[in-house]
Amino acid sequence: MDEEPRGPQAAHLRQRKFQLLRLFPIPPDLLPGTLTRSYTRCGNPRCHCSHQKGHEAWTLTFMVKGERHVERIPRDWVEQVQRRLAAGREFQDAVREVLAANAQLLVLARQQRKKKKRKRH
After folding, report:
1. Is residue 3 pLDDT above 70, yes or no?
2. Is there a domain that residue 3 lies in?
3. C or N terminus of the chain, fewer CB within 10 Å?
4. Which H or E element spans position 55?
């Protein structure tokens, strides 16, 4: 891309992009994935889980290099993990928006380049 696109739409996209980049330096403790609550049975016939809901279990599911990982999460970590997951999703949404703005700026630059070439002929 030789030239940056011009005009109010390009300015707005660049402004939003840099606003997001300033807002979201990469925090060191973000988490990807999904936290899920399930209920399991221990197999002991005298335990409450044999005839009730079961024992609460939390798992974090995430991907690393295309492989799915599932890790059990202690109950006392759940609130903190939920906050870190929410921050991770917010960060990913901001990154997607920056990437989309870059793509839109590329399209604008190409459209403006075509218009310039038509005016010259």
Report:
1. no
2. no
3. C
4. strand 55-64
Please give the order of strands across the beta sheet that includes 34-40: 34-40, 55-64, 67-73
SS3 6: coil
Structural domain includes residue 46: yes
Q: Give the pLDDT mean for 83-90.
A: 95
Range of the domain at 114: 8-120
Task: Decide: 71 and 85 in contact? Cβ < 8 Å.
Answer: no
Query: Structure pTM?
Result: 0.72
Q: At a CB cut-off of 8 Å and minimum separation 6, what does 36 contact? A: 58, 59, 60, 61
Structural domain includes residue 2 = no
pLDDT of 83 reads 96
